Write the structure tokens for this entry.
Amino acid sequence: MRKRYLLLIVTALFGLMFMAVDRYTQDITASLTEQKVREADYYGETLISRRYDADGSLADTFYAATSAHYPDGDLTVFSQPRLLVSTDKNWVLTANEGVLQGNLQALNLSGDILIRPQDVSDNWQLETSAMTYHIDRQLAESDQPVLITSDNTRMSGTGMLFDTQRQRLELHSKVSTYYAPE
């Protein structure tokens, strides 16, 4: 009788040990699976993308040094994005990084953002640290400090809305302007 109980106890202990080892290995493989999801599923270099209006005219051209798509969250991260907005007066938007989520048509830009006319003879430029560019509406907005400079004007404010189609810029608050006539 004692041998049966001893065999039963030893079998139960082995069963518990195997369950513990199984749970431990499942935790390890689950964390490795989560890490794989956070890795990019594809990369790109020297990206050029053109978007056209319904009437077939060029709306904008997007350039990026590199891109990486992350399936977790459906995010695409761009390095050194540059957007050429084709309107009556072409505008160039540059930044250190850009993030596009899925098909939301909103490009979130960050780091040393600069908006300027494509014509280099026009010395006007806008600087900020973070901005969202709404691709489908060709609107740029920010709630960060903004600095606008030209040959003889310096304007600053917090928050802005820039409509590239209507050529209209609104500063939201704390607006300060310095103008030095020539």
Remarks:
- The two ends are 110 Å apart (CA to CA).
